């Protein structure tokens, strides 16, 4: 039985506003599908990528859009702030599409596979943006999307296996019988194991040394088994869904920006094209920070730390607004260390914690920012919160308070005293992990 298409705009209209559609207090945190929640325990798995070696199976939670044809480079250049001209085959880039107001759609990883062939991976909102403009602009391209496996049956087209940690390179050498060809960060080389040929991308989500292996899913089991076998004597640990979902907190990657698409009248046709049951229509907002205005949840690439990926050597959607925004960046990405005594009082001494709530950050009773993801990181014995704060509160060592709770939404004043708990916190840099901050992209 075929289901009738329901658009994002229809969902907004029925809900009454974008914020009424997306505001869902108490929403459960995201975790990757298919893989087990834990293999040896979430805490030990978090420690593996810091002090040993880990393998993460990323084959199931990312959407892939394949962009091919003579118009591919022009399309990707027109819809993003990236410099597509300086893009080697085998290289990957942090894809940065912005709306006309200069705020981000969502990021993604763009890999150039061939002369006229690219694959865009990650949260599907950026892929929807590319797909829409490819059709609306009449570009000479073919696009094909393989959705993540949250609700899609069958095997994905690609496998992704990530090996990272201090012993990652040793594991890789054992698996391949020697070191892989030298390659720079976010560049890849073609490699083989047995009958399988695939790419080895220098990349690691937790900000640790390592590789991400990408290839046809038919080789998934053989390649994964070979990597696990090679790592047995090194104590390799398989990362489960719970631990994996927390790894961006230390590496400084904000995973769930709100796409800047909900109110611009010129995007009415876009909202009519995007489905309601998509990231754009279902990714929940919740926490103690509430506003009736969805644009209060938008973010700039400058705030997110994507400045090194932005180029103004070409024309693209949102170019002028993004250039202007550089001179008035008001917020800075930081990591908050939540006070351990307060954490104990609110959450207890131990136990898994991962929260994507937008919680108020206050200084002397005034709002200075919001959290984006908070997680218990067992190896450092702290709850850390990746956040955006006003520049005046961004200096490491600054003391602030996190207001922890679930605002009920429309009908209650945004600043109502709801008796929410307060946790003291100290501002630290983002990325929090020193290797990710100082050496991750050194080459």
TrEMBL record:
Pfam families per the UniProt record, alphabetical: GCV_T
Source organism: Microbacterium invictum
Binding sites annotated in the UniProt record for substrate: 212
One of the protein's GO biological processes: methylation
InterPro entries assigned to the protein according to its UniProt record, in alphabetical order: GcvT/YgfZ/DmdA (IPR028896), GCVT_N (IPR006222), TrmE/GcvT-like (IPR027266)
Top-rank EC class of the record's enzyme: transferase
Domain (GCVT N-terminal): residue spans on this chain: 41-254
UniProt keyword terms in alphabetical order: Methyltransferase, Transferase
The protein's name: Syringate O-demethylase
Domain of life: Bacteria
EC number of the protein: 2.1.1.-
Record-level Gene Ontology MF annotations: methyltransferase activity
